[in-house]
Amino acid sequence: MFEEENAAWGLVHALVLDGQGGARWLRYGELHALQLAPGHSLWLHWDRGHPLAQAWLRDNSGLSEFVCDLLLEENTRPRLLPLPDAELLLFLRGVNLNPGAQPEDMVSVRIFAQAQRVVSLRLRPLRATDELIGQLMAGKGPRTASELILYIAQHLTERVQDLVGGLSDTLDEEEERIDADDRYQPEHNGLLQLRRRAAGLRRFLAPQRDIYGQLARAKLPWFAADDGDYWNELNNSLTRYLEELELSRERVALLLEAEDRSLNERMNRTMYRFGVITGIFLPMTFLTGLLGTNVGGIPGASNPYGFFVTCALLLLLAAAEWWMFRRLRWL
Question: Could you give the domains of the chain?
Answer without folding.
Answer: 2-262 (3.30.460.20), 273-327 (1.20.58.340)
